[in-house]
Design a protein that fits this description.
Blueprint lengths: L15 H9 L11 H8 L39 H13 L3 H6 L7 H4 L2 H5 L10 H9 L12 H18 L4 H18 L6
Helix pairs in contact: 8-9
């Protein structure tokens, strides 16, 4: 797809160029987390009605897997002098009455009480052409592939990816297989240096 110019290497996610490309139709597809349904309308208001939400393409015909992309964490710092109040807020926003305002603001909320709610699943979204977007997201959440996990040094790997892949994506140096091979080798080496057993 890269060789056929169906994928662009020239636009960085979350940049002004990215917003413009989403708005004017230059970018027609984005494989990204379900939370993008709330981020896309304010970033690409001119594209209202042009986008739809779909499950990820599958490696093997007949499979129906989705994947994790991103996530959120609410943490209480050890130095906090208001740990109990902080915990009550975390509990409120994740399991209490604070969940609904997040849903109302179009956030993707991973609570089963939301993802299995008939009204939530049946809701349509005009920005996405009247599609039942929540149903697609709930189906994806129920089909996340298991048997894998992010490595404990994944943030290092993300940074390393930029170093390893930038020459290819910006200057066309090398090929994509070599990029992945180099990233795999440097990640294995780093993990083992940090005391993990990585093969």
């Amino acid at each position: 797809m890269i060789d056929e110019d169906l994928i662009t290497n020239d636009i960085t996610n979350w940049s002004d160029d990215w917003n413009r490309a989403l708005n004017d139709g230059t970018l027609a597809t984005q494989v990204i987390g379900g939370w993008m349904t709330a981020n896309l309308p304010p970033r690409a208001p001119d594209a209202a009605g042009n986008f739809r939400v779909a499950a990820m393409p599958q490696w093997n015909e007949g499979e129906n897997y989705s994947a994790e992309n991103g996530g959120s964490t609410l943490a209480i710092l050890d130095a906090s002098e208001q740990k109990e109040a902080a915990f009550k807020f975390v509990e409120y926003i994740t399991h209490g009455d604070g969940v609904q305002p997040r849903v109302d603001s179009n956030a993707t909320v991973p609570n089963l009480s939301i993802l299995e709610n008939e009204d939530y699943l049946a809701a349509t979204d005009d920005y996405y052409g009247g599609q039942q977007v929540n149903q697609v997201i709930a189906d994806a959440a129920a089909n996340v592939r298991t048997g894998w996990q992010f490595p404990p040094f994944f943030e290092w790997m993300r940074s390393e990816w930029n170093d390893v892949a930038t020459p290819y994506f910006t200057n066309g140096e090398g090929d994509l297989k070599t990029v992945f091979d180099n990233w795999q080798k440097s990640s294995i080496d780093y993990g083992n240096e940090q005391g993990f057993t990585v093969e």
